[in-house]
Amino acid sequence: MSSAMDYEKKAICETKAGIKGLVDSGIVEIPKNFIRPPHELAEELNMCKSTLQIPVVDLSGIEVEDRRKKIVDEIRDASEKWGFFQLINHGVPSSVLDGMIHGIRKFHEQDVDVKKEYYSPDPRARQVRYDSNLQLFKTEGRTSYWKDTLYISRLVSGHIEPELIPPVCRKTTLEYINHVMKLGDILLGLLSEALGLKQDYLKAAECANHQSVACHYHPACPQPELTLGTTKHTDPVFLTILLQDMSGGLQVMRDNQWADVTPIEHGLVVNIGDFLQILSNDKFVSAIHRAVAKKVGPRISVAFFFDGSGPTSSKMYGPIKEFISDENPPLYKEFQVSDYVSKFFTKPLDKTVLDLFRL
Ligand SMILES: O=C(O)CCC(=O)C(=O)O
Ligand SMILES: [Fe+2]
């Protein structure tokens, strides 16, 4: 590591002002540790961009039987082909969505002296913490991302001690959690039906008992083409509901091309996570996605993750028995959340959850 990089790392960590602090200091070039490796940047230049758009599913009329059937068909198709879709008329009030984005922006833009109280680079240390993935400096050859994130973790059925949430965004965040939990229930029902199972199957299978929320703030970036807001990844959870502002930047991989997930005002993005791909025995896909950095900012996005039972539970997960036959053998071994957690922190960077459990 160069001494210049050491200085930048130290400055970001010590001020606890995040990437936002770096931008506010007036930099015109991004520090080296944010620059993606040359082979990645070269590969990018040769890659075609997809003009396809992820499907949009309208949830209005869901209580009418025929309409629900059509919605289930659309969700099945999107989950099989893309692993991604957008929802409109999903029942979460526009004021709650706007309030969440506004609250998260206020958190990241508040006085650093207040914000830094929440700063912690250790994912296991605190239930609510803010960080800029600077711990990645420590890992040789790993690039840092152009974003700061407020993490709200270890929610149990949507519950968290309200006082743990920063006052500046407490009311709006609690409201948002409350509504997204309800939408999560509706979605689990629709996804169960899309898999040909009873409506309460995925909920009863403990696919969403725990939740966490990652509230991202991507500041304007002076050299966006050299870095990323979030590197390409799949979500190591069952299901994600993502709220994004109108800035754009989220992309999903389809047939080896990046497709933009163009924001829809007051829409929500849904994506299938690794564990749902495993349960469905590869019927549904957990798609690779990323967020590009932008010259203008900030961009706010909020990923609400639905996770399984906690690491102390002995609940086993694996391909759903109903899908397994001599012709369709299981593609993954069974596992407990604790197996996954212990492997996750030591797994090689290029391995996903799917690789860890594939037979
Ligand atoms: O910022 C985004 O739109 C994507 C965030 C994301 O993929 C994640 O938090 O897992
Ligand atoms: Fe993600």
TrEMBL record:
Alphabetically ordered keywords of this record: Iron, Metal-binding, Oxidoreductase, Vitamin C
Claim: Magnesium is one of the keywords in the record: no
Pfam family, one: 2OG-FeII_Oxy
Domain Fe2OG dioxygenase: 207-308
Keyword Cell membrane: no
PANTHER family: 1-AMINOCYCLOPROPANE-1-CARBOXYLATE OXIDASE HOMOLOG 1-LIKE, OXIDOREDUCTASE, 2OG-FE II OXYGENASE FAMILY PROTEIN
Family statement: Belongs to the iron/ascorbate-dependent oxidoreductase family.
Name listed for the protein in its UniProt record: Fe2OG dioxygenase domain-containing protein
Biological source species: Datura stramonium (Jimsonweed)
